[in-house]
Amino acid sequence: MAVRRYEPAVRFSDHEKILGLEGTFIILMSAVTSRIQRIGGELRRTMVLVRPYLWRHRMAYAALAVLYGLELAQTLVYAWYYGALTDAAIHTQMDRLKSLLLLGAGLLAASAAIAYLHALAETAATTGVKRDMEKALYKRLLLLPGSELSGHRSGDLVSRFANDLHSIGGVLGGGLMEILRLPVVYAAVFVYLYQLNGTIALVSLCAAPAALAAGAASGWLLRRNGREVQRLLGTMSSLLNETIRGHGVVRAYALERMLYRKYAGFNRELYRLERQNAKLSGAFQAGGFAVSSVVFMTSLGLGAYFLSRQMMTVGSLLTFLNLVNHLVYPLTGLAGQWASFQRSLAALDRIAPLLSAPVPATGLPEYIPPAPLKKAIRFEGLCFRYEGQTRLFEDFRLTVPAGRTVAVVGPSGAGKTTLLQLLAGFQQPEAGEIWLDDRRGSSMDLAERRSYFSLVSQETFLFDGTVRENLLGARPGVTEAELREAARNACLHEEIMALPDGYDTPIGELGAKLSGGQRQRLAIARALLRNAPVLLLDEATSALDTETERDVKTALERLMKGRTTIVIAHRLSTVRDADRIVVLDKGRMVQEGTHEELVKAEGLYRRLHHRKETKDKEPMPVDVYPA
User: Fold this and answer.
1) Which of 44, 76, 78, 125 lies 20 to 30 angstroms, CA to CA, from 8?
2) Is-contact 23 14, C-beta < 8 A?
């Protein structure tokens, strides 16, 4: 039997036939109530998020509220002034005219002062809150755990800074104050006009439903489009970031045309959405103008009638006409501000998850001089899984004695790098504990825990700055002598001095102006300066040629001297001299011992070693090119 789908866009008359007029009215009222509740919920969630930032700048917002009050009073005074001046001129009241002209000069001066102070107060409030939110967002990025950061594309995160933060003015500044101010303006103007002529004021009130309905509809559509625009900007930023960082691969595989088509497609969709937003905004503005014109012409016609009946003075009519648009513009303005508010909420929707994401600490960590490791590092009953995957470690146990070198080997996906991440606190275990001597790692402050470790990884990360700036990041208070000594021990000092500006030479983004070996040795020099008791090496030589690898190994031997070292090895040739080798397979320790012991024993290590020896004996491929 065919299932009839519910169609929400059923005609009103169809609802009336099925449910009757009373049932249809109940459905419509339920929909309106639901919409109002949803809007109220959005406002509450927004205020919970931004309230701390607004409160810090409460004096600026208080000043802005006072200035808005003065502007409202100024609007009413100007309207009265035009009428009074007109009536005085018609009745040739010269003394009153002189007084009114002097008053007008004072009003102009006051208007200029209020406008200037308003601009200052609004800038102080809006930019102050944006600045605080930007700092809070960056601080949150610094504190977020790696598992949370890895769920976002870098370009998307950059877009949240570059685009979303600068799109939330409707929530933070004048937009928010306008939403609060305009209903007050509407009420004050209506009361004032009602005193002048109640009939015209009540007729003008009929414009309210049309203006509010138009604003609600356009606001909902603009917010929906706003979400898509912000998402597209993030996607385009990610693609741009990938194109720049992977330019070598792009050229090597001739991906230019494919990537251009991809970017052009995103660009077309962005253009379509922005055109749609422009049409919505234009239609709303045109509707607002039409409503204003109808109200003005109606008021003018009624005013002319009352004037002809001598029920109004010319000055009163002029005052009324001057103010009547204030019965429309607060409504159209409120709807327009609501539309802007919706666009800002779309941007805030993307920022909110980062600002509210849980972090392991609230304050930025400070450098703590490392304590010596005297006994051992112990992994006891460790359990861990990545989100959405099967458990990697189950009741894992391992002891690394102080001052010894332990190598961890195994096939890809065995959990080698994850083990280092758990040790350094980059990932958190589901159960179990990591002990540093007699101290629980989970009970230690993350900054103190990480002070035990220096990390040198396969993918060396360097900041876009000078050689000196990258080395000084190891710890505070590094002297020039210590800096140069670390570079010498890393076999790098002479090469640094050969650079155009020595230690003050810019190295480019990610150290792009240095060779692979120089980048790796710079990372080793940084680790030497940190002077931590435990060294974590995540295959620090796997991507280097033979000659460069020899220099790096010399530097690593100096770095490892006197330190507890855990080596993650993807190549068995790098672990022969380790005091102990641990073999992992799918998160389980399947073997342990020295290189000699493991080669003799039947097991995974021997198979990996045999595979490596077989590969080394294979002849190098020779490409033969025709002459």
Assistant:
1) 44
2) no
- Bridge partners of 565, per DSSP, are 405, 535
Tokens of 496: 């640094």
pTM of the model: 0.65
Q: Is 497 helix (H, G, I), strand (E, B) or coil?
A: helix
One-letter amino acid of 431: A
DSSP string across 155-195: HHHHHIIIIIGGG-HHHHSHHHHHHHHHHHHHHHHHHHHHH
Q: How many helices (H) and strands (E) does the chain have?
A: 22, 10
**pLDDT, tens digit, for every residue of 235-293?**
887 788 778 777 767 776 677 888 888 888 888 988 888 888 788 777 777 776 777 67
- In sequence order, which residues have a C-beta less than 8 Å from that of residue 495 and are 6 or more positions away? 518
* Paired strand residues for 534: 453, 564
Q: Are 321 and 299 in contact (CB under 8 A)?
A: yes
Spatial distance between the Cα atoms of 419 and 417, rounded to a whole number of angstroms? 5
| Cα–Cα distance measured from residue 320 to residue 626, given in angstroms and rounded to the nearest whole number | 95
Q: Is 343 left (phi over 0), alpha (psi -120 to 50) or beta?
A: alpha
- With a cut of 60, say whether residue 340 has pLDDT above it: yes
Q: Which of 381, 452, 351 is nearest to 135 (CA)?
A: 351
Q: Could you say which DSSP state residue 466 is in?
A: B
Residue with tokens 């930023």: 237
Residue 139 near residue 364 (C-beta atoms within 8 A): yes
Q: Exposed, middle or buried by CB within 10 Å (0-12, 13-18, 19+), for 172? A: buried
Q: Tens digits of per-residue pLDDT, 371-416?
A: 888 889 999 999 998 877 888 899 999 999 999 999 999 888 888 8
Q: Are 523 and 456 in contact (CB under 8 A)?
A: yes
Alpha helices in 3-93 (DSSP H): 12-56, 58-90
Residue type, 36: I
Chain Cα centroid distance, residue 107 = 45
- What H or E segment, with its residue span, contains residue 335? helix 329-356
Cβ burial of 484 (10 Å; 0-12, 13-18, 19+) is middle
Residue bearing tokens 């009073």: 73
Contact 548, 554 (CB under 8 A): no
C-alpha angle 581-587-593 in degrees, rounded to nearest 5: 15
In this prediction, residues 183-206 reach a mean pLDDT of 75
- Residue 478: left if φ>0, alpha if ψ -120 to 50, beta else—which one? beta
Cα–Cα distance list, 127 to 78, 121, 228 (Å): 31, 10, 25
pLDDT of residue 618: 46
Q: Are 163 and 377 a contacting pair, CB within 8 Å?
A: no
The encoded tokens of residue 529 equal: 């300066």
Q: Which two tokens stand for residue 605?
A: 């290590």
What are the respective helix, strand and coil percentages of the chain, to the nearest 5?
65, 10, 25
Of the candidates 568, 521, 172, 608, the residue with the CA atom closest to the CA atom of residue 409: 568
Closest CA to 527 of 519, 535, 517: 535
DSSP string, 57-70: THHHHHHHHHHHHH
